[in-house]
Each structure stands twice: as structure tokens, then as C-alpha cells.
Amino acid sequence: MAKVAIIGAGSIVFCKTLMLDILATPGLEGTEFALMAPSTRRTLQVEAFANRVIKANGLPAKVWKTTDRREALKGADYVIATFQVGGTQAFEMDVHIPLRFGVDQCIGDTLGPGGIFRTLRSLPVMMDLAHDMEELCPNALLLNYVNPMATNCWALGKTKVQFVGLCHGVQTTMDLISGYVGVPKDQIDFLAAGINHMAWFLKLEHQGRDLYPILRERFEQPEYYVNEKVRGEVFRHFGYFMTESTGHLSEYLPYFRKNQTALDLYCDEPAFGGETGAYLRWGQGVDEKYNQQDILANESAELPRRSIEYGSYIIEAIEMGKLFKLNGNVINNGMIANLPADCCAEGPIYVDRLGLHKTIVGDLPPQCAALNLTNINVQRLAVEAGLTGDPEHIVHACALDPLTSARLTLKEIRDMACAMLDAESQWLPQFAGKTIHPAPTIVIPADVQRTHVPVDPALAILARFGELAK
Question: Residues 330, 356: contact at Cβ < 8 Å?
Fold first, then answer.
């Protein structure tokens, strides 16, 4: 019987999905689940529902809850991380404070000021989890679902823990591609690689036939383009389709949310297609529903078909020796040749009884790697800030963020970072007693005389040419 510890099991819907996937997998029916969250307010619901499913289907599985992370981890074979530090209270600050300064975010959980501060909140918990695993279950595999995926996995790479970061961006994008090119998803051969939320489909084929010409043709038709304007624009100008939706992608680049004209043109789709704070409002609605009722009380106890989430398939591959291919997030270390070795990259991974085996992709097209690097630069500084507790690196990360730098001056960025650090300090123990010093405002009188400085020889030569031209 494999033991699965779910850290952050208060994420009711997601936790339920992952557990049902495992229970529905032949050979994994006897899994032991340890549900851990800081309180039992929501894990009570998950535990009761899981026990109902186990009883109704006559399964030999076992489930129990705890608020003690170390108790949950002891002897675990697999650890699933699904926590969110600060909940919707912190998330509101991630969205509303930057908006006050002029930075408009739709999702705000991966890059941008919101993604940077979610990294800062998550890393202390993630590193404590990793250190507990090193002690209590050193051979366990950590399946990380915590966002920001890239920064959390980057930090995990500095520990001894075996891990893979899991996202469903590839699977859901393949549904879109399948519909656009008219080929069933399971008949499309593809190669996707890059970074989380910005991996590129380098190959799309059906029985050896390149599907890219069809996809390009579709995106030149209004009825297709209108569904994914931002992703469509990046596809048109950079040549490759990628794994993240318009709402997310609009935040990772400087082109689409930098002014109201761009927002109106590209980010006018409903829900997560670009609206300001769309993901926050959805999360608040889910929270309200959680707090009003036991949302699992009337759920069917029948085992459904397994979802698209990778978790159960990875465990099945290791436990049952059934080969499985996925796109996962790991430390790059040569998987993608023209991205930094120490960053977190997303690419094809094979899993079998011996564990995870990443493949070598080689170089990304240079323009695709360049866009990835604009995000990797921010990720690097956010991880550095989160692990060292140096508040200046918060400013550096925000200053290099593509959206923030398209909207704000350096002084405005520093002032925004100050405001966010002050507001979210209760979740940021690594910055206790530290502050970001605001930049002074220098008032220049109208009659001020410039201080004499030595003239740059090159400028002097240019000035002399100017005089001669007269």
C-alpha cells in the first residue's frame, strides 16, 4: 500500500480530483491518504467524502486527516503539494495594490507583482516541507502543484528532494489545438518545451503530417482568432504556439496590458481572457461557497473517469511499471540548451518503475528562448529574494518584470514593492524587521546650475562635428 501525503488538502475540489484519480487507477485502490492542512475546517469535508467513496466502492484504501505536517510526511511514498499561503486575503493584496499603482493583472499568480509576492510567501513553507521530507521520507517523490510553479521548483532544486512540478497547460492547450486543426487530441504527436506557462509547441504532427500550416490558417480567421487574441498575436509574430491562455500570457509580456488601448483591443474576452482580477473574483466565489456549505455532501460516490491531471499516472507508472510520458517542470541542467542550467524548465519526461527520466530537447528557436528569458530573469530574482530575505531583490524582480516595467518608473516600482511588503508582512517571515527604503524625491529648482563634470571624449567629438556642420 503506497502512502500519499497531501499537503494543502484544504483545497477541496483539487484534492478531491487527485484522490479520485488515484482510487480509480487499477492497482492503486489500496492507497493510504494523509490529508494535511493548518486547520481541519475543510479537510473534514474531504475526509468524509473520501470515506464515502471508499465504502461505496469496496476499496481497501485508507484516509485520515491531521494538522501536523511531519505526521503526514512520516514514511510517505509520494507527497502532493497544493497549498496557497495567505489565501484570498493575500491574493487581494497581490491584485489591488499593484492596480492602485497602475499595474493591471488578470490572474496575478505566476509573474508580475502578484506572482513575485506569491513566490515570497510560498518559499518558506516549501523549503520547510522539503527539509521535513529529507528527514522523514527521503525517498519520496514530491508532486508539486503550488504556483508559481517555476519559482517553487527552482527553489526545490536547491534541496535533496526528488520532485516534479505539474501543470495542466499542455493538456488543455492540446484540446484547443485539436479543435482548431480538426484532429483528435490523442492522434496528435507533439513536442513542447520551454518554461511553465510559456512552453512552445515545437512540433505538431498527425501521422507524419505537419499541422502547423492548418493552425496558422485558422488563426487568420476572425472566428478562431477572437478566442485567443494574445496567444494568437504571439503565434503570428514569434512563429510558434504556446501553452498559456490569453489571460495569463497577457501578464508575462509587455505588449498587451501596458495601456487602456491595448487592454481594450486584446484583453476583452470574458472570465480568464484578460479581465482585471478575474482569477481573484473566481477564487473569492469558491471561498464563499466553501464557507457556506459542505460542497462535497451531495457529490456522487461513484468513481469517475480519471481527469487530465498527471498525478495518478505518475504514481501508476512507478508503482505498476506502466510507462507514462508527460510535460513536467524540473531543474533544466541541459534539457533545453539555450536556457540557464539552474532555472526551472518544462519539457518532456518519461516515468517508469525506476522514476523520472527527462529528455534532451536541445535549443529552442532563439526568439522563443528570448521570451522565456524575460520571465526567467524575474524568477531568478524572486527566488533570490525569497530565500535570502534581501528586500532589495524584491525591487529588482519587480523592475525586470515585463508588465510592471512597461507601466511604471523605477521609483514607482520601488514604492509599490514597499507597499506590498508592508501589507503582506505577516506571511513573509524571511523579511521580518526588514524594509524596502523608498527612493527620495529630488526637487530640481528651475534655476539650478548643472555640476561641471569632465566631458566624454566621444560626445566632445560629436559636438565638434555638429559645429563643423553648421
Answer: yes
Q: Given phi > 0 = left and psi -120 to 50 = alpha, else beta, which region is 112?
A: left
d(CA 397, CA 111): 10
For 179-201, how does the pLDDT look when each residue is reduced to its tens digit (9 = 90+)?
A: 999 999 999 999 999 999 999 99
- Please tell me the distance from the alpha carbon of residue 227 to that of residue 246, in angstroms, as a whole number: 9
Active-site residue flag, 310 = no
- Amino acid 463: pLDDT: 65
Give CA–CA dist 346/167, Å, rounded. Answer: 10
- Facing residues of 348 across strands? 327
Q: What is the pLDDT of residue 62?
A: 95
The list of the chain residues with pLDDT below 50 reads none
pLDDT at 324: 96
- 186: exposed, middle or buried (C-beta count within 10 Å: 0-12, 13-18, 19+)? exposed
Whats the size of the chain, residue-wise? 470
Q: Among 385, 349, 383, 374, which Cα is nearest to 156's?
A: 383
Which residue type does 241 have? F
Report the C-alpha gap between 49 and 81 in whole angstroms.
20
- 88-107+167-447, CATH topology level: LDH C-terminal domain-like (3.90.1820)
Q: What integer pLDDT is reported at residue 17 of this predicted model?
A: 92
List all residues 6 or more positions away from 134 whose beta carbon is below 8 Å from its beta carbon: 159, 160, 161
Is residue 205 left, alpha or beta, with left meaning phi > 0 and alpha meaning psi from -120 to 50?
beta
Task: Taking each helix axis as running N to C, give the angle between helix 112-136 and helix 392-400, from 0 to 180 degrees, rounded to the nearest 10.
Answer: 120
Cα of first residue to Cα of last residue in the chain, in angstroms, is: 88
Longest CA–CA span in the chain (Å) reads: 95
Is residue 252 part of the annotated active site? The answer reads yes
Catalytic entry in 168, 206, 224, 225: 168
Backbone angles phi, psi at 225, to 5 degrees: -55, -40
Buried b (16+ CB within 10 A) or exposed e, 110-125: bbbbbbbbbbbbbbbb
pLDDT of residue 271: 58
Task: Give residue 300's identity as a one-letter amino acid code.
Answer: S
Output Rg (C-alpha) for the chain, integer angstroms. 24
Options 78, 180, 240, 252, the catalytic residue: 252
Ordered by start, the domain boundaries in the chain are 88-107+167-447
HEC profile of 122-148? HHHHHHHHHHHHHHHCCCCEEEECCCC
Which pLDDT does position 459 carry in this prediction? 65
